[in-house]
């Protein structure tokens, strides 16, 4: 059978229910950050600090299928620079030397890396430097959660019960340059085998199914205050102290 480019415009949706809560439509793939909050403006689940646990969830997925977590540098950059590093499960990743420039997924053929119709939509994130972590939902006996919608209940983390597989990733972004962060996407992939199909490239890696944008996640490193306001504040405090000392000297005299 010939497989041509295939791109899922919408994720598979299944129904799930937590005890005592109304039923929710839950995407096949979704992300959450323990203790995170949902930003309605960017429609993204945000980490509350530099160190956090990110959970990839799969509902109705195969435990032998390969899935990918994309970690994209924000704000987007187009050339290497001194942006620091981050760790995933204790393993350091150098930015940008340990990442790939373009739009996820990482192509088997480097000439295809950039953007094509089978890649993730750019959604104001790509192109930038990104890395991928491949994994499987391989331990269903221990890594199961009660089903919940991460958009509605951001920050919950795994719940008692079953029905939704998960994989945990521990991140520390403290080594990134101030003002930068990572945007996370979750998906699986398909490789094009074109046969006689036109406008198709053998070996092109495309996204098959992915977590909807409203179920993505992100972590940012706090920006350092601008030096000028800080200097002005210190100068003002110094002048206030000097004036106070002069006033006390006049009172003594």
Give your account of this protein's structure.
With 253 residues, this protein is mainly beta. The protein folds into two domains: 210 residues, no CATH class; 28 residues. Helices cover 10% and strands 35% of the residues. The strands form three sheets. Strands 4, 5, 7, 10, 11, 14, 15 and 16 form an eight-stranded mixed sheet that branches. Strand 4 and strand 5 form a beta hairpin. The N terminus is likely disordered.
Structural class: mainly beta
Number of domains: 2
Helix amount: 10-25%
Work out the strand percent: 35-45%
Largest sheet: 8 strands, mixed
Order of helices and strands: EEEEEEEEEEEEEEEEH
**Mean model confidence by pLDDT:** 84
Number of helices, where a helix is a run of at least 4 consecutive DSSP H or I residues = 1
Oligomer: single chain
Give Rg in angstroms: 23 Å
Which of globular, elongated, flat, extended, rod-shaped describes the shape?
globular
Q: Which stretches are poorly predicted, pLDDT < 50 over at least 5 residues?
A: 1-23
Number of beta-strand segments: 16
* CA(first)-CA(last) distance: 100 Å
């Amino acid at each position: 059978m010939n497989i041509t480019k295939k791109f899922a415009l919408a994720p598979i949706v299944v129904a799930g229910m937590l005890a005592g809560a109304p039923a929710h439509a839950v995407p096949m793939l979704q992300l959450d950050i323990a203790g995170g909050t949902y930003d309605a403006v960017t429609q993204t689940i945000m980490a509350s600090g530099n160190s956090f646990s990110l959970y990839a969830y799969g509902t109705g997925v195969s435990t032998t299928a390969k899935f990918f977590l994309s970690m994209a540098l924000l704000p987007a950059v187009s050339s290497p620079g001194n942006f620091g590093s981050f760790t995933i499960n204790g393993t350091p990743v150098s930015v940008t030397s340990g990442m790939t420039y373009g739009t996820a997924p990482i192509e088997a053929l480097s000439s295809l890396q950039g953007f094509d119709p089978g890649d993730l939509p750019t959604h104001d994130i790509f192109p930038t430097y990104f890395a991928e972590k491949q994994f499987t939902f391989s331990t269903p006996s221990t890594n199961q959660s009660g089903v919940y919608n991460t958009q509605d209940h951001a920050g919950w983390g795994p719940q008692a019960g079953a029905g939704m597989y998960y994989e945990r990733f521990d991140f520390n972004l403290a080594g990134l340059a101030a003002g930068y962060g990572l945007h996370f996407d979750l998906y699986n992939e398909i490789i094009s085998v074109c046969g006689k199909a036109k406008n198709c490239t053998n070996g092109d890696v495309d996204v098959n199914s992915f977590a909807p944008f409203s179920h993505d996640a992100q972590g940012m490193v706090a920006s350092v205050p601008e030096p000028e306001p800080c200097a002005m504040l210190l100068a003002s405090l110094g002048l206030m102290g000097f004036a106070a000392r002069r006033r006390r000297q006049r009172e003594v005299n």
